[in-house]
Amino acid sequence: MGRKAVVLLSGGLDSSCLTYRMIAHRWSLLAVSANYGQRHKREVEAALAIATRLEIEWLPIDLSSVGSHLEGNALTGQAALPQKDYSQESLAVTVVPLRNALFLTAASAIALARGYETVAIGVHGGDHPVYPDCRAGFITAYQAMVDAFTEGRKLEIQAPFLHQQKSDIVAVGARLGVPFELTWSCYAGGEIHCGLCSTCRERREAFRLAGVPDPTQYAA
Amino acid sequence: MGRKAVVLLSGGLDSSCLTYRMIAHRWSLLAVSANYGQRHKREVEAALAIATRLEIEWLPIDLSSVGSHLEGNALTGQAALPQKDYSQESLAVTVVPLRNALFLTAASAIALARGYETVAIGVHGGDHPVYPDCRAGFITAYQAMVDAFTEGRKLEIQAPFLHQQKSDIVAVGARLGVPFELTWSCYAGGEIHCGLCSTCRERREAFRLAGVPDPTQYAA
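Output (structure tokens, whole complex):
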């Protein structure tokens, strides 16, 4: 029995590779996955599939009541997903306010209640330009907020992919035998990956750059 | 129409007085109240009663899925409420991990989604010894975390009672005509206030110190 951590497992590529990486490093894991009313709720099923494959404890949490009040973005609100223009301005509509803060706070509270000393999150460098809560400054500030609660460093936030690109993560996952076909990235939330939204595009590109065969079926 | 703020309204004495104070200062308010699986869910009805009396918009949010995993404390778990020993060690069982962080993050996300620039919370000096997330250091660290997300001070966390005692808050509330009989403090969550738990004891004492008649019916 190694050290214990709560891992935020969305069911996407990054958090699935993170989970496999931590298992390889002999962590004992509790995976937490959030339904926050996202259009692509399907990712929660992917998270369950990964947790089941790894035989780790899995806790789904329901934040949909909060998500239902977060209008104006394309994931929990009615705004359209960008499918052609991937500029930062265009992708801003996919930012859910404080999403990682919500996930991290719920995961940290559960970790503290259970006496775990680590929470891990799969944020990475490729997300930095568009998503402020995927950057080092945010993770550092979040850690400081938890430290203020625990009065010292009693819970550590780990983000081992923080300075890596998505293609590096795919390479790590390939080495560890991550069942990529079980993971889900697409924001559109259809039956198969749309192939057009920003996260499908990034997924595809990451496999290509890593030189890893992409088992994903894309609609376009 | 004044400035707009999201106010965390638990239905207790402090947040109800805060809400009345902000209305007196001509804020336009959206009150957010959380069900987090607390034993004293009855406070959410109190929050609705206050919001209704003030004719302000009210949003209940459901965090009970997170709360259900926070074992080990007396509010969301099975631990017994202290009814005689009010030492800090004894009261530690009433600390829900990162409770104010959860409330503030949900309220802040909703504020950002709606373009509000302020979130207000009724933490006060009387809570400082036992509850780390009621202290200035925590509020400052929380603000810094939000600033990291918004890349600058775009959402301000206000905690005007931070350095006041509960009796000062009762005095403010009395001047503003807060309907104290509608508010709910008791952690035990019975039909009337138990009069024995730490928050009942503090409520009673605050009225006494403020020299304000206490309309609360206590069982003991």
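The CA atoms of residues 119 and 157 of chain B lie 5 Å apart.
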